[in-house]
Every structure is written in C-alpha cells, then in structure tokens.
C-alpha cells in the first residue's frame, strides 16, 4: 500500500470538561490525506464528544483542531462543513416528503448559500438536477432519484445521508456508525462503497463504528479511546493484539456484568 502521510487534520490536546468530568482529556491525533480511520472505544470513552468537537457541534474546553493547519476549534458546524468536513448522522436527517433528488439538491443549494427561492430553484435548475443525479449515481441510487424519500428502505436512507454529505464537497467525510441497523448484505455494500469512493475521489474517512468486523474490514488505522484519553493507535491487527486495548474492553464488560 502507498504511504499516506500528509496530515489533513490534527487535534492538539483536545479537551472537553463537563463539570468535574473530562469527557475528552488531552487527545492529540492526526488524520492523513486519503486514509480510512476508525475511532473506537468502550461505552462512555468520549468518542461522541471528540467527534462533536471536530465537526463543530461542541466547543472544546481547550486544545486545537487544525484543518490543513488552520484552527477550526469552536467554529459553528456550517463553517466547518464549508471548510471541508462533512458529517453524517445515525439519526436520519432527510426530508421524507421530498424526492431523493430534491434532498440532494437542497444540500447542494444550502451549501452554496443560496437558500433564497430554494424551491423554485429546485424545479428549474437543470445543472443542479444533473449534479444531484451524478452524486446519486456514485451511490447507486440513480434509479430512486424521483421517488419520495419516505418510501425508501432504512438502508437506502442511510445511503441518501451519505449523498447529502458528499453534496457539500467535503475533503473529510465523518460517518457516525455507517453500518448501524443495516442488513449483512447492506453492510458489505457500504464497506465496498466507502472503499470505491475513497479510490475515486481520495476522500479521507473518519468513522465511528461499534461493529468490530466492520472496523477491522474497513479501517486502515484505528484510534482507540478509553476514559477520555487516546489509549492506542495503529493498524487494525496491531490494535487488536494490544493488551491495554483488550483490558479496556474486557474491563468494561466486567464492570457492566457486575
Ligand atoms: N452533555 C454532557 N454533559 C455531561 N456529561 C456528558 C455530556 N456528554 C457526554 N457526557 C459524558 O462524557 C463521557 C463521554 O461520553 P461520550 O458520549 O462522548 O462517549 P462515547 O464514547 O461516545 O460513548 P458511547 O459509545 O456509549 O456512545 C460519558 O461519561 C458521558 O456521560
């Protein structure tokens, strides 16, 4: 595999405190251009809090988030999205009453700051129509473009969420449990799709995922958090063998079994 060492995103001593609790406690990481990185850790490790700070949904107590060297910590989500970090959520945030194509068009238009006369733009703008269809085709959703979104299966809605993220032309794609709730076949398809998208467009993927098969089948590098800190980072097979990581997961299982 080719070396991929150009840093695109780094965090420096990123910290979030809730009262006396350091949910994220001095975490410094680096994402390299074009790699697929998974963030894992037992329940309560601080993954969501960390993720929220990178995507602008939470302001850090201290520390920095550098996107190609520029500090974006504490900026609002739309500015971070415009700077090149797109995030999709586990909870579907699609408009069920609109068609699949219209959902992507809304993302395209709002990303470009043209929310005025949005619905008249949707109907008439041929370039926007084409652009939305091109994104849908990348995800294999082209045949569904004209369908009302509410009629889609859960798996197809998750794909549409990914299409909406791609509409903002991100460099870093953050996916919150991209395979949660999917059937085994859909999971395999999403893994393939992420690989294909990365190969075609060199996106950097930063995912959280509970399903270890997905993590180890997809990620090139794994970051493990435990009790707010970065416990380990490395290739999936290294991390899997790491005694501290095993202890962290086992310890938590023992705690919850107690
Ligand atoms: N808004 C908040 N106020 C107070 N405490 C919080 C808040 N958000 C998270 N926490 C606490 O911070 C710690 C880390 O939570 P976080 O949700 O980031 O962990 P996680 O690794 O995403 O967990 P899970 O895998 O269970 O979703 C937990 O102890 C949690 O209770």
UniProtKB/TrEMBL annotation:
Gene3D superfamilies: P-loop containing nucleotide triphosphate hydrolases. InterPro entries: AAA+_ATPase, ABC_AA/LPS_Transport, ABC_transporter-like_ATP-bd, ABC_transporter-like_CS, BCA_ABC_TP_C, P-loop_NTPase. Transmembrane segments: none annotated. SUPFAM superfamilies: P-loop containing nucleoside triphosphate hydrolases. This is ABC transporter ATP-binding protein. Keywords: ATP-binding, Nucleotide-binding, Transport. One of its GO terms (molecular function) is ATP binding. Residues 9-252 form the ABC transporter domain. The lineage of its organism: Bacteria, Pseudomonadati, Pseudomonadota, Alphaproteobacteria, Rhodospirillales.
């Amino acid at each position: 595999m080719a070396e991929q060492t150009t840093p695109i995103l780094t965090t420096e001593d990123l910290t979030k405190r809730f009262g006396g609790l350091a949910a994220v406690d001095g975490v410094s990481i680096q994402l390299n251009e074009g790699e697929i990185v998974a963030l894992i850790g037992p329940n309560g490790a601080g993954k969501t809090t960390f993720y929220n700070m990178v995507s602008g949904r939470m302001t850090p107590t201290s520390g920095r988030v550098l996107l190609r060297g520029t500090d974006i910590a504490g900026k609002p989500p739309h500015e971070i999205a415009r700077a090149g970090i797109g995030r999709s959520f586990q909870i579907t945030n699609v408009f069920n009453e609109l068609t699949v194509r219209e959902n992507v068009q809304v993302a395209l238009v709002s990303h470009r700051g043209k929310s005025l006369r949005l619905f008249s733009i949707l109907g008439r703008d041929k370039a926007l129509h084409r652009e939305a269809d091109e994104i849908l085709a990348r995800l294999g959703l082209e045949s569904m473009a004209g369908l009302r979104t509410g009629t889609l299966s859960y798996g197809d809605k998750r794909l549409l969420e990914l299409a909406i993220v791609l509409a903002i032309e991100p460099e870093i794609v953050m996916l919150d449990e991209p395979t949660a709730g999917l059937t085994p076949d859909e999971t395999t398809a999403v893994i393939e799709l992420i690989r294909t998208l990365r190969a075609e467009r060199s996106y950097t993927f930063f995912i959280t995922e509970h399903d270890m098969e997905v993590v180890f089948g997809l990620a090139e590098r794994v970051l493990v958090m435990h009790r707010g800190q970065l416990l380990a980072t490395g290739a999936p097979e290294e991390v899997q063998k790491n005694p501290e990581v095993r202890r962290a997961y086992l310890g938590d299982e023992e705690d919850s079994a107690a």
